[in-house]
Write the C-alpha cells for this entry.
Amino acid sequence: MTRVHDGVTKLDRIDLKILSRLQHDGTLSQRQLADQVGLSLNACWRRLQRLSSAGIILGTSSQIDLSALGIDLTVFVMIRTRHHSREWADRFRKFVERQPEVIDFHRIGGDWDYMIKVAAKGIGGYDNFYQRLITGFDFDRVTGLFSMEAIVDNRAIDLVRLSASTAGSPSRHAQIEISDKEAAP
C-alpha cells in the first residue's frame, strides 16, 4: 500500500503493478487497470491518487512515431561551455527549453557540461537548430552525435526487478517494500 512515513513514500507490489501497467499503456481506464492488478475500482483509484500526490505519477502522454511525421533524424548534442555562472546557466536553460526540436536536455558530469537530444526533419532541420544554438552563446565545444538506429527507445522500466536489485540501498525518495503477503488496498 502506498503510504508516507517520515517523508518517504513506501510502495508495495500492487503499486509496482499499477506503475508497470501504466508505463506500458497509459490509456487504460481505471476499470481496466483495477482488473489487471486485482483491485476494486475504488481501491485502485485511491492508490492512483496517492501515487499522484506523492509525485510518482506525473501525468499521461502518448508515444508518437516521429519518423511517420518526417522527423527522422535524432542527434545527441554535446556541449562544453566556458561559463558556469547561475545567470548564464539560467539563460541557456530558458533558450533550450523554447526550442521545438529538443526532446531531452541534461546537465551532465565528465568531459561535457550538457547533452541535448534533438529530433529534426533531416540534416537541414538539425542545422537550423544548430545555427540558433550557437548564435548568442559562447561555447568551448559543440558536437553532434547522429543516431543511426534506436536500439532501445522509451522502454518501460521493470520496476519489480529494479527494486529487487536495489534492495537495502538507502534512499530519501520512494522506498519499495515487497513481501510475499500483499498489503491491503
Notes: The two ends are 6 Å apart (CA to CA).
